[in-house]
Amino acid sequence: MADATTYSDNRQYLSPVWSHYTDIVVDHAQGPFVYGTDGNRYIDFTCGIGVTNTGHSHPKVVAAAQAQLGKIMHSQINLLFHQPMLDLVEELLPIVPAALHSFFFSNSGAEAVEASIKLARQATKRTNIITFTGSFHGRTVGTMSLTNSNPIYRIGYQPLMAGVFVAPFPYAYRYGWEPEATTAFCLRELRHLLATQTAPSETAAILIEPVLGEGGYVPPTPGFLEGVQQIAREHGILLIVDEVQSGFGRTGKWFGFQHYGADAYPLEPDIIVMAKGIASGLPLSGIAARPELMAKWPTGSHGGTYGGNAVSCAAAVATIRAMRDEKMIENAATMGDGLQGRLRQLQEEYPQIGDVRGLGLMVGAEFVTDQGQPDGKLAKAVTKEALHDKLMLLTCGPYGNVIRWIPPINVSAAVIDEATGIFAGALKRVIG
């Protein structure tokens, strides 16, 4: 067994199914920084793919988890109630829509999406689900059937779950259209889908990410989500928003869908899917739904051994309180504006950055060729060069040509400046 100064390296025994963006072996991490066993400090603008929204090892979250470890680590919900779950409900009630005050907890984003689909089918007694191009909802058989962001998640696994239909997402930059025209086209196609492929009477739910995650960090065009909700309401179809990556302050609001709608016509999903940033890195996910929907879910027809783990729930309570008390969500909005501004300055110098977009600190920079085609090779080269200067960035999108910026939502302007300075140096060395 390794002692405090010796590190074992058994990476060769890990399954090659995992891809690896770096070869870093982490020793410890704090805030926006990861410290490797190689002695180097890295700026982590990946957040474990949008998970450590409060930064690594936030002291309030660590303290809450440590305290709970000394009480009870596992309290299966079918057998015992535990206080952290009840406290988590208390913290969630003010931040979800008032009508969505019934909760189910699980472990991962994919599990929560699966739960939302099972609930929708039971509640409506309908079978089909509509999802959107570019979407990512997970890698289980059910959720990869709903995923359209990259074929790697689906190749070799067919046949997949039946009853899934795909509508176009309003990715205006890819289409080359103005936002208004993009919204109109995509809503027309959604109605056409309901007229030609899945009848409203057999459609249980429309499932959508308020901002595409793996699909390229693409916010929808204005009016689109409102239009989707209107279509759903017309036909008694449930609206499910997948907030796995866009939730818990990432976009500068508690949830991504809260950027849309108006006082006269608010966006009011029937089910919200939550995970990633909810517990600052401990495994936890859940759904919030209207209680009249939950009442139609037969007792015992869904569940899980570890769902709503006591330590994870304690961490989630501390996470939400820290976000609120330390004004992290407001910080995400402010820092996100500054980050996009700096990236747009670089865009003027490097036209290979075809688009800069995002909400809060969920920001994408899309790289294209001189002919305007996706340039995944260039995006990968830039992230690799940035890593040489100890900045961790990820790519996304079907072509891998979008560099996504996912810093902690409590990141400082100084760290943003350091990171964008490294990024600028990487662009200069790669592009010239």
> Which word captures the global form?
globular
Instruction: Say which CATH homologous superfamily of the largest domain is assigned.
Output: Type I PLP-dependent aspartate aminotransferase-like (Major domain)
* Fraction of residues in helix: 25-40%
> Unreliable stretches, pLDDT < 50, 5 or more residues?
none
Order of helices and strands: EEEHHHEHEHEHHEHEEEHHHEEHEEEH
Major sheet attributes? 7 strands, mixed
Distance between the termini: 48 Å
- Could you tell me the radius of gyration in angstroms? 21 Å
CATH class of the largest domain: Alpha Beta
The CATH architecture of the largest domain can be given as 3-Layer(aba) Sandwich
CATH fold assignment of the largest domain = Aspartate Aminotransferase, domain 2
- Rounded mean pLDDT is 96
Question: What portion of the residues fall into strands of 2 or more residues?
Answer: 15-25%
What structural category arises from helix and sheet content? alpha/beta
Oligomeric assembly: single chain
Total DSSP E strands: 15
How are the strands of the biggest sheet laid out side by side? 4-10-9-8-7-5-6
Number of helices, where a helix is a run of at least 4 consecutive DSSP H or I residues: 13
Our count of domains comes out at 2
